[in-house]
TrEMBL record:
The keyword Transmembrane helix applies. Pfam families: BPD_transp_1. It comes from Siculibacillus lacustris. Keywords: Cell membrane, Membrane, Transmembrane, Transmembrane helix, Transport. GO terms for biological process: transmembrane transport. InterPro entries: ABC_transporter_permease (IPR051393), MetI-like (IPR000515), MetI-like_sf (IPR035906). Its main location: membrane. Residues 90-305 form the ABC transmembrane type-1 domain. The chain crosses the membrane at residues 29-49, 94-115, 127-147, 175-198, 233-255, 287-309. One of its GO terms (cellular component) is plasma membrane. Belongs to the binding-protein-dependent transport system permease family. It is found in: Cell membrane. This is Sugar ABC transporter permease.
Length: 313
C-alpha cells in the first residue's frame, strides 16, 4: 500500500504570514504603548495640565488666600488693557527680545564663520564660548551686577581710561536695557556659535570651491550659498532665541535688585509682572491671564517666523 502525498494548500502559507504579521503588529503596538506611555503621562502632568489649569484660572478672580474665587469671564483680560505696568512690561520685553535676538545671532554667526577658518582650534574656542551657557543665571547675574556697579564696577573703571564719566548702568532707564541685552548675549551666544558651526561644517566644500572658481566674493558666497543652505538651522536659532528672551526673568530680577518695583532700579518684563501678581500679591487669576497673553503673543511671533523662513517653491 503506497502513501498518498497531498499537494500543499496554496492558501496556507499566506494565511500563516498574515497571522504572524498581525501578531507582530499587536506586539509592536503594545511595546510602543508601554515605552511611550510613562513619557506621555509625564508630559501631560508637567506640561499640558499646568497650561490648561492656567487658562482655567485666567477666567476667575482667584486669590490664593480667599475661599471664594468668583468666575469673572474675560474680566482679567479686559483689565490688561487698563494696566499701565503690564503695558510697560510688554514694551520692555519686546524691545529687549528684539535687540537680544538680533545681537546674539549676528555675533554667533560671525564667530562661527571665523572659527571655520581655524578648524583645528575651533573645538577649543567653541568650548570657551560655551562656558557661559552652562553657567547658572543667578551667579552669572550677580557677577555682572558687580561689573556694572557705578562706583566700584570694572566696566566704569575701564571706561575711565578713555575719559568716560561714571555711568549708572543699572540705574539709568535707557542704559539698563542695553546692560541686560549685553548679559543675555554673553550668556547665550556660545550655544548658537556651536549650532551655526555644525551648520557650516555640513555645507559641501565643493560648492564653495566652485564659487571661488567663478570669482564669487565672500559676501556673495555668504548670501547665495551659506545662508540659504543654513535656512533650517537659522530658523531653529531664531525660534529658540526668541522663546528664551521673551521668558527672561532671572537676570532682570537679580540685576535690578528687586521684585520688579524698587525705585531707581525698575525695569519691568512680562515674566516679572507674572511673578509679582502671582507669587507676591497672590492674584493667580490675573497672573494666569498674563501668562495666556504671553503664550499667544510668542506663538504668533513663531508663526510669523516660520512663514518668513518658508522656502519659496
Amino acid at each position: 500500500m503506497s502513501d498518498v502525498i497531498l499537494p500543499p494548500q496554496p492558501s496556507s502559507l499566506p494565511a500563516r504570514l498574515a497571522r504572524g504579521w498581525a501578531r507582530m503588529k499587536r506586539n509592536h503596538i503594545g511595546f510602543v504603548i508601554c515605552a511611550l506611555g510613562p513619557v506621555l503621562a509625564l508630559f501631560v502632568v508637567i506640561r499640558i495640565y499646568p497650561i490648561a489649569e492656567t487658562i482655567r484660572l485666567s477666567f476667575y478672580d482667584y486669590h490664593i488666600t480667599r475661599r471664594s474665587n468668583p468666575f469673572v469671564g474675560l474680566g482679567n483680560y479686559a483689565y490688561l488693557f487698563e494696566d499701565g505696568p503690564f503695558h510697560e512690561a510688554l514694551v520692555n520685553t519686546i524691545l529687549f527680545s528684539m535687540l537680544a535676538v538680533v545681537a546674539t545671532l549676528l555675533l554667533a554667526l560671525a564667530c562661527a564663520i571665523l572659527l571655520r577658518s581655524i578648524e583645528k582650534a575651533a573645538p577649543i574656542y567653541e568650548l570657551l564660548f560655551y562656558i557661559p551657557v552652562v553657567t547658572p543665571w543667578v551667579p552669572a547675574s550677580v557677577i555682572w551686577k558687580w561689573i556694572f556697579d557705578p562706583t566700584f564696577g570694572a566696566l566704569n573703571y575701564a571706561l575711565s581710561f578713555f575719559g568716560v564719566a561714571r555711568l549708572g548702568w543699572l540705574q539709568d532707564p535707557t542704559l539698563i536695557l542695553f546692560a541686560l541685552v549685553a548679559v543675555s548675549v554673553w550668556k547665550m551666544v556660545g550655544y548658537f556659535v556651536v549650532i551655526f558651526g555644525v551648520g557650516l561644517r555640513a555645507i559641501p566644500e565643493e560648492l564653495l570651491e566652485a564659487a571661488d572658481l567663478d570669482g564669487a566674493t565672500a559676501w556673495r558666497k555668504l548670501t547665495r550659498i551659506v545662508l540659504p543652505l543654513m535656512r533650517p538651522i537659522i530658523l531653529f536659532s531664531v525660534v529658540t532665541c526668541t522663546i528664551i528672551n521673551f521668558n527672561v526673568f532671572a537676570p532682570v530680577y537679580v540685576l535690578t535688585a528687586s521684585s520688579q518695583g524698587a525705585p531707581a532700579y525698575d525695569f519691568k518684563v512680562l515674566v516679572g509682572e507674572i511673578y509679582s501678581n502671582g507669587f507676591v500679591y497672590y492674584h493667580m487669576g490675573y497672573a494666569g491671564a498674563q501668562c495666556v497673553v504671553l503664550l499667544l503673543f510668542v506663538m504668533s511671533l513663531l508663526i510669523v517666523q516660520f512663514l518668513a523662513f518658508r522656502e519659496k517653491k
